[in-house]
Amino acid sequence: MSCLILKLTTVELLLLCFCLQTGILGHENGPDVVTVIVKQGNDVILPCSLSTKERITSKLFDWKKGGQEVFMYDAGIHYNNGRSGQDEQFKGRVSHFPGELKSGNASIIIQNTRMEDGGDYTCDFSRLEPRQIFHIKLVVERTFKDRSGEITGAAAEPYITIVDVTEDGVQLKCQVQGAFPQPKLHWQDSDGNVLPAEEPQVSERGGHYNVILYSTVTSTTTSRFSCVVKQEDISHIVNAEITLPDKLFEDKSCPVAGALIGGWFSGALTVAAVLVLFEVAKYIKKHCKKGKF
Ligand SMILES: *[C@@H]1O[C@H](CO)[C@@H](O)[C@H](O)[C@H]1NC(C)=O
């Protein structure tokens, strides 16, 4: 019995899906909307064409996004040849296709899309009889990249130091200074796996954030670790890497060596010095095996 109910429900669902897809249920939720997806920073064409393909060279069409004026064309006069009133956000980034006007095509191209360009647009032929309005939804997909040269407040490459070498592993410190908005940090191995870390230590001064994130890494398949800094709001990502000598993870049977290396490392060493310390570690280990420590 329960099987039968389930079957009926499935059939009904399928029917419903079919009806929705083919539009049998009509557009009770509003007009037809064309959705266009673009990656942040790329150019995008918002389509708008009269089905009649009639010449619109001397007609009026107006592109809007909510209350914002995106692009208005009126018989050859538009925002790129003297007409005023265009919203600041779109200035210098929007144009139409003059060669397409003869076939009723009022599509526009938006260059270098920004996150705030995403939303609902209308392409309105307000003087046509009957009036024609087209609805286009633009989805801008966030694209993270290094924007430190481009946006003030975008975090610079973080600073990595080795704090300590203990039985538990190698304690790494990642530090970012003077970033706004507040960045999020994480440690990952070279396979991209996010590593467990302590709670970040955040301090703020003059609207700029300093963040420190500690993580104790252990020997995995890799010895290359990176600290990744992200600022979601400005789509900024930057990272720094450190490659630890395998020896650091070996030979826990020689605690003196570990302590020595640890003590040495905690003296605020730069990443570049790691290779030198690698030699030190080797030396200590060699002597350790000989029983000198
Ligand atoms: C309208 O013009 C644009 C830009 O040239 C083009 O990509 C689009 O395919 C045209 N649309 C139609 C329906 O011809």
Structure explained in plain terms:
The chain is α+β, with helices and mostly antiparallel strands. The chain folds into two domains: 22-141, Immunoglobulins (Immunoglobulin-like); 159-289, Sandwich (Immunoglobulin-like), CATH 2.60.40.10. It contains three helices and 16 strands. A six-stranded mixed sheet has the order 1-9-8-3-4-5, with no helix packed on it. A four-stranded antiparallel sheet has the order 10-11-14-13. Strands 2-7-6 form a three-stranded antiparallel sheet, with no helix packed on it. The chain is elongated and about 80 Å long. Residues 1-8, 13-27, 256-272 and 287-293 have low confidence and may be disordered. Residues 45, 47, 49, 97, 100, 105, 107 line the site of 2-acetamido-2-deoxy-beta-D-glucopyranose (NAG).
Concise synopsis of the structure shown:
This protein has three helices and 16 strands. By secondary structure, the protein is α+β, with helices and mostly antiparallel strands. The strands form four sheets. A six-stranded mixed beta sheet has the order 1-9-8-3-4-5, with no helix packed on it. It has a four-stranded antiparallel beta sheet with strand order 10-11-14-13.
